[in-house]
Structures are given as C-alpha cells and as structure tokens.
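From: lab user (bench 3)
To: helpdesk
Subject: output format question, protein + magnesium ion

Hello, I'm new to running complex predictions and I'm not sure whether the block I got back is the full result or only part of it. Here's what I submitted:
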Amino acid sequence: MVAAPAVEFRELSKRFPGVLALDRVSWTLAPGEIHALLGENGAGKSTLLRILAGDHRPDGGELVLPGTGVDVRTPADAHDARVRVIYQEPNLLMDRSVAENVLIGALPARRHLVDRRRLHELAAEQARRLGVDIDVTTRVRRLGPAARQLVEIMKALASDVRVLALDEPTSSLSGRETERLFAILRTLRSDGVGIVYVSHRLEEVREIADRATVMRDGRVVGTVSVASTTDAELIRMMIGRQISTVFATPDTHGDGRGDRGTPRLAVTELRTGSVGPVSLTVRAGEVVGIAGLVGSGRSKLVRALAGAEPLTGGEVRVDGRPVRSRGPSGAIAAGIAVCPEDRRALALVPDRSVRENILLGHRTVRPRLGFLRVRRREVDRVERYLRLLDIRPADPEARVRTLSGGNQQKVVLARWLAREPSVLILDEPTRGIDVGAKSEIYALIRRLTADGLAVLVVSSELVEVIGLADRVYVMRGGRVAGEVPRAEATEESLLTLALGTNQRSRP
Ligand SMILES: Nc1ncnc2c1ncn2[C@@H]1O[C@H](COP(=O)(O)OP(=O)(O)OP(=O)(O)O)[C@@H](O)[C@H]1O
Ligand SMILES: [Mg+2]
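Helpdesk reply: Thanks, we reran it on our side. This is the complete output you should expect:
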C-alpha cells in the first residue's frame, strides 16, 4: 500500500497476570481498507482493540497513528485522533434514551440545559442517515440486543471517524441488519476510513473484508488478502491444525441409542401472544433443531418454554409431567434449562469467579455432608465443566471479567449443563465461539444426548441446525411450518419452508 498507514502497531506487547495477551504484535491498518482480525477465543483480538482505544496501556512497543500527532495514552487521546472502537460487550447507559447515548459526547445545550428537541432531531437524523429504524426517545434498557448494537454503531459514527474498529458487531444482528451495517462500512471505506473487523464468521469476512490478519496465542500468524486465501487456509492459520469435520460424525447420530422414543419434552398446542398453536416433541437422546427467520416466533417460543412469557394456551410436559408452576423457576424445577440468546447481558456476574458463575442458582448445599465436602463436590463439578468445554484459563477462581468473550460464553453454557437438566434448550449456542471450540461444543452436545438428555437447538445459522439436529422444526409466522428429518434437511429445504414459498404442510 502506498498511503501512510492509518494505524501502526510496532512490536506491541500486553501482559495480564499469568498470560501474555499480545506478544510483540506488529500490524498495520491502511486507510480505506476493511481489515479482518481472526483467531481463536483468547487469541488477543479484543486486547488489541482495547489498546487501540486507549483503554489498556501496552507493556512494550508502540502504537502509532501517523499524521495525527496524537500519542494514545488514554481513551480521550484515541477519541481526539478520531478512533472509535465498538466493543464486544454493550457499553451503553441503560436508563438513558437512544438519543442521549448516541450524542453523549456532544449533547446540544440551550441556556445550560440539554436541548431535548434538538437532541432528538439530531439523533433521528443520524438514524435516518444510517438507515436504522429506531425511536430515538426510547430508553436503551427497553431495546433488544440487535437494537442496542445498532445504537452502539450510531454512537460511534455520531462524529467524524478516521479509524473504526468493531468487535463481533453482527453477533446479535439479523441478516438484513447485517447487510445494512455492511453498506455503511462500504461507504466509510470509500471515504478513506480504516476499518478493523473482528468476527468468527468466515463467510462475513469473505463478504466484507479486503485483508485479514490471523492471531494465535497473542501473536500475529500472518496477514493475507481475503480473496486469495481459502477458508481451509484461514482455519489452519487460526487453530494450527486442520478441521475435517466440524460436526460429530453421522454414525453417532440417529438410531442405536437405547431409550429413544420416550418424549422428554412434549409441547401441545402452546400459545403465547401471537405465537401458536405450536406442538412439538423432543425425545430422550435426540437433538431437535428449530429454524426460522427472525420474527418467525423462534425466540418467543423459547422464552415461553423458559417460563419468561406467559402461556395463553396449551401445555408443556417434561417426562410426562405437566409443567404447572409458572415463571422461570417453574421451568427450572421441571427440569428445563434454557441457555438464553443474550448471554453476556443476562447471564453473567463479571466480577465473580468462574466457579461462582457456574454454580449460580444451584442448590447444592446438603447440610448432612458438611461444608468441606459440599465445597469439594462443587469444585469437582466446576472442574469437570472447565475441562469438558475447554474453558481457558482453566482456573475456577479467575474473575469472569478477565476471560475472553468466547470463553465467557462457554461459562454460561457450563452453568446450564451443570444443572444436569432433562431438557436443554440452547438459543444460538455457538455465537461468538471460534471454529475449533464450536466443533468441540457440537461433539459435547452429542455426548450429552447419548446419556439421554433431550436437546432443543434454536439457531439462525442453518448449517448449525443441519449439522446438529436429528429433526428440524421450521417456524414461520408464529407456527410450525413443517418438520424435516435429518436426511432431508438442507439449506434449501429449510429456507423454502421458512420463507413459505411452497405449501408443504405439517406432517
Ligand atoms: N483484564 C484482563 N485480565 C486478565 N486477563 C485478561 C484480561 N483481558 C483479557 N485477558 C486474557 O488475555 C487473553 C486474550 O484475550 P482477548 O479478550 O483479547 O481474546 P479474543 O481474541 O478477543 O477472544 P474471543 O474471540 O473469545 O473474544 C486471554 O487469555 C484472556 O483471558
Ligand atoms: Mg474478544
């Protein structure tokens, strides 16, 4: 590239207690390029962005922003140099409006008071400019994860930017919102903005990025042009080995398991709000998928099964017993564990240890065992799941806050698995999880079903549903549009049902 780089890292290192998160990283971002950062969970991607944002100080090396004359030591320095970083975790004021969050750096004032009318006008204008359909007077707390992500993006782009970095920005966006974001990024690119894009989804990287830098264990493995590098090559760079099959081999699927046939979860004519009637079963040892477009009722169905939405009709049975008591505690008592979609926001206590987070909500105190034995049992259980899910670092006492994003997700999965439920419902189970860990989680799900667990997987990634499920229910308009056995589940057959372009009815 001929132009001076927008950002240059020179031999930059960052150490945390017990881990070298960045090890002499040299890397450049050109103006007017979209540069993907790839790597396994814990590779150092978010740490690199935190240094760029001035939130972390490196222990060695230099960060240079040529032509700005700014030496980044604090977040304010990075801001002055027109560097904006959108983090993996939402970073918004929950009890403030969309408009206040977006314009927080430049609230319009009149006679020392915030000029609300002007504020709302400016924010609405910004939303229109970016093609975001949102009421700017709404409090952020009332928005779903996708809308919150869009607010983050509006906020980052509220003033002129030179460098924009996004850490897994699409993890809660729908396909249409992702396309919208990509259109915005392409415009910024043509305006000369340097863009850093962190993602675990290779197909996205392929669609949007010009170059990619792969990191592993805090080091740069290499920088490549995306167009001239295959997925297999990128994956090999990321994990240092080849993955032949991401999904458990077919011979572990299907028949051959003892007590299949007993429905563990039976949902009959369930209704909640505009969703229903929905009937479905999940048998012992079975993985059942739910596919459907955003808005098809998938998430609402899951919330109803979790006890978070009231049923307006129908019945849910676990192992033949109707779930009678209402609310989340009723579902849990009945043996249903739901690993929610919005895991980071809903589910973790960042300043507590991994052990405490896994055991959260467990009733493990058995007085007759005595404190020390209870404690021993807890520790054993936690260590088992640290191992099963390959959570890194494998230290039960590490604060969750210090784990990488993907490892935090695994902690939430561990919590639900540790409850040893009858029915496990996974909503988007591998969002934010790297390819290597993904295939481990798929294998784990398979192993758990071999012990008789019934699993319901809701995912917007069709490949995931197809790869995992023995059977797939496809939802459309709040109802089950069809049921597809594993042998017939292809992206095409599922999409056809989800879109309703043919009139195949429920068997
Ligand atoms: N505040 C912290 N204290 C201690 N260790 C930390 C802290 N922040 C990050 N780490 C460690 O630094 C390493 C790199 O983490 P980082 O968050 O940069 O990974 P990542 O590549 O973004 O992973 P992911 O894909 O899971 O988000 C990990 O080993 C992580 O546990
Ligand atoms: Mg990260």
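A quick orientation on your result: The first strand starts at residue 7 and ends at 16. Let us know if anything else is unclear.
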